[in-house]
Structure formats: C-alpha cells, structure tokens
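Example record

The entry below shows one chain as it appears in the dataset: sequence first, then structure tokens.
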Amino acid sequence: MAGDNSIGSDTTPKHVLYSRALGKRPVLSVKMGGVDVNCLLDTGSQVTTVTESFFQEHLQSVCKQIVSPGSWITLTAANGLQIPYSGYVELDMEIAGRTIPKRGILIVKDPVASSGLAVQKQAVPGLLGMNVIGQCVDLLMGDLNVLSPEELHPQTDFLTSAPDTTSVYSVIIMLCFFFA
C-alpha cells in the first residue's frame, strides 16, 4: 500500500534493503599540489586527509615540508577511536577549477591490507574535511555576493556554536551546485 512505513519482509531482497538504507558516497576529484586525488566529501570531518601510501607514491615529491605528528592534534573517529597519522603538509587545492591556497592535509596511516576499507581507500585515498569545504563555501558565497555567517553575525564563534538546521541545509545545497 502507498505510504506504508513498514520495513521489508523476510522475502525482500537484500539489494532492495541496501538501496533503501545506503546513499551514494559523495566523491569528487580534486588536485592537491597539482596531483589528481579522488576524495570523499565529509562535512563531519574538521580535517582533510590523504592515505600514507598515496602520499608516498604521488605527493611526497611536491611537498617542501612535512611536519611530523606530535601532540598538537589528535584525530578521533566518530566511534571514538583514534586515527593514527604520520604527518602534516600544506598544499594548494584545486576544486572545480578554483584554487584554494595552503590547506592543511593530514597523512593518515593505511588501513589493514586485508580489510574492505583498504580497497575503498585505494579507490578514494583522500577525504575533504571542513578546512577545505568551508573555503569552497566562502568562494561560492563570494561568487554569489552572499554574506557569510561570520559577516552576518560577527560576534558569534562558529567553531563552538551549533549551526541551525536551515544554515546547514543551505550550505549543503550550495555545495551541490558548486560541485555539479
């Protein structure tokens, strides 16, 4: 029946349930230091990362300085586990033909070779976090002559305050148009 909110029966094929439960991962190709990198767009991450193996094979030669990991930053996954990383670099990023200068990129350790995550990371070795996505939003807002939240509310600390739902949806919609 139309509008029925019941979950599929035992006879519902798994692929149908998967298609209803899982969305497509937002992946785009960007340039880091002039090198093409497939990246997952992750608005839940504050940092941009690239796998250690991809870095060593493709980016190490273009990096002037690599900062060793230290206690200045700790990466924590959504499940609370720490994410090991081996270094930090700053590179120019090119996204949709626009250059964003000197963005920080953390070099994360590769997942265990036999895991499904290792296969995914080979195809998509990068992750674009809010340190890059935020700059894309700023560029887009500038192109559209739209004031940023910081310009509208200069006394608000947007790093520690929770955004309202309308702002989050507006940013996501603008990102969709920006990367289309």
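Notes for this example: Residues 14 and 110 are 30 Å apart (CA to CA). The mean pLDDT is 79.
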